[in-house]
Amino acid sequence: MNIRHRRRARRFTLVSAVAALAAGGIALAVSDAGASVASQAPAAGAATSTATGATTAWLGYSGGKLVYGHDAQGNQVPDYSHAGYEGGGVPLPTAAVRDRVAKPSGGDDTAQIQAAIDAVSKLPVNSQGLRGAVLLGPGSYKIAGSLQIDASGVVLRGSGSGAGGTRLVAEGASARTVLTIGGTSSYRALTTPTKVTDRYVPVGGTTVDVASTAGLGVGSSVVVQRPTTQAWLDAIGMQNLWKPDWSLYSERTVTAVHGRQLTLDAPLTTALEAQYTQASVFKDSFARIDHVGIESLSTDGQAMAADPKYASDFYNSTFSSFNAVQDSWVRDVVSYHYGQDGVTRLGGQSRRITVLHTATLDMITNTATSARSDGYTLMGQENLIQDCKVTADKIHAFTTEARQSGPNVYSDCSAVLLQSSYDSGGHQRWGSGTLYDNVTVDGTLLMVNNGSRGTGHGWSDANSTAWNCVTTGGYEVQNPPTAHNWAFGCTGKLLTGSNGEVAGSGKPQLPQSLYAEQLHERGLTPIS
């Protein structure tokens, strides 16, 4: 069956399913991308999903609850609500003040702030996992060096992010990260990896059958490892761009054991296919610090732009970064004049971080070349960036990086164009399981195959969802082979080349926020 006929058959199956379900009083959103692209050839590099013959529509809302559909292989829109501090829906704690820097010294304040951080880092951890907060008084503090937090339970708190509050001002023409949190770590297997015996574990799935459950029980922290193979690269068309020298690692907690079946606390965002890879599960230990916070301050990186190498080094101009850190947060922080990830960079080893009520404003980037910086970057696993704003020239406003297993969430974020051009969406190499929820972009939203662009970025998003997003430049949604990308209720032109799963174009869907609703259906409330 050729591509056009396959799409028509799939469209007929979905429409028939919706009609049958509607007869039962269930309103569902069916993909309309098939209708919009069936009469044209797919764009170069685009591909239809290998999963055909869907038996129901993808996602609907009936009786105040979400109704999930799936394709013939069981793949469905994942539950993204496990993103955020402590797994989502858990209020951020308030740390007691244990040390103070009352006012700026008039000179370089790096040493006095670091001394206060170090003092609190030596205090015992309380029952909430907190040691205490360093409170900075109002004023502008000059930071000529760099700050570091290496202990759990330490909070750096200012006296407000607005006028009359606390501002950390980077001094010196050297592009750098002003505040680094945590170091690096690696997985340490506590049990021998056991093979996944399922022929296929779908996207959105939370159960895996394994050869042995020895050493695994309820509450075990495990890693589901999905090695990349040449067979899979061939299947997704990346054989000339990527090498089979990496794995996706999904960290999960076992919530039930039935025979040789493990139930996991959060869904997988890339399918486990026996025909392409041999996945395994092992109990793990991954050293991270936790319960670290940055709160209620602003920061300015203007001085870094005087770096003679800034045209290439603007990527290094960042206020904060999270490395091997989990269950931590940034809230009420505004950055000005940084070159990359102005408020914070969530690194590939970060997990369950919440970034709340922040803004990255007036970024200073290199507009003379094709290079683009990032306004916000989601890496790691189960991270949440909510209620954010970015203003800049020519950037990737809301993006992800390579080899992410998610789920990660952008929610209620907006990007405002100053001069040149914006885009949002995954940047490179299978950033899977991202939700763009109520995201507004003065530019384009792209979940596509970037092909040989950059360093051979290839498929940027996989099994990602755009929900009620607004774009001025349009949006493009492509399905990677072996995977899907979804868009529901997005406003703006559906761009040529879209062959993904698109429903309700130009018509915002209920509920307003998919992330919030998925939390509600777990019995949790979004923090705000």
Give the helix/strand layout.
Blueprint: H1 3-23, E1 28-29, H2 33-37, E2 59-62, E3 65-68, E4 97-101, H3 110-121, E5 132-136, E6 139-143, E7 147-149, E8 154-157, E9 166-170, E10 177-181, E11 188-189, E12 194-195, E13 200-201, E14 207-209, E15 221-227, H4 230-236, E16 247-258, E17 261-264, E18 272-273, E19 280-285, E20 289-290, E21 293-300, H5 310-313, E22 318-322, E23 325-336, E24 345-346, E25 351-361, E26 373-378, E27 384-392, E28 395-400, E29 408-417, E30 422-424, E31 431-432, E32 434-437, E33 440-441, E34 444-447, E35 461-462, E36 465-467, E37 470-471, E38 474-477, E39 486-488, E40 501-503, H6 514-520
Parallel strand pairs: 4-5, 5-8, 6-9, 7-10, 8-21, 9-21, 10-22, 20-23, 21-23, 22-24, 23-25, 25-27, 26-28, 27-29, 28-30, 29-32, 29-33, 30-34, 31-35, 32-36, 33-37, 34-38, 36-39, 39-40
Antiparallel strand pairs: 1-2, 2-3, 11-19, 12-19, 13-18, 14-17, 15-16, 15-19, 16-17
Account of the 3D structure:
With 528 residues, the chain is mostly beta strands. The protein is 11% helix and 35% strand. The chain has 6 helices and 40 strands. The strands form 7 sheets. The chain has a 17-stranded parallel beta sheet that branches. The longest helix is centred in the first third of the chain and has 21 residues, at 3-23. It starts with a helix and ends in an 8-residue tail after the last helix.
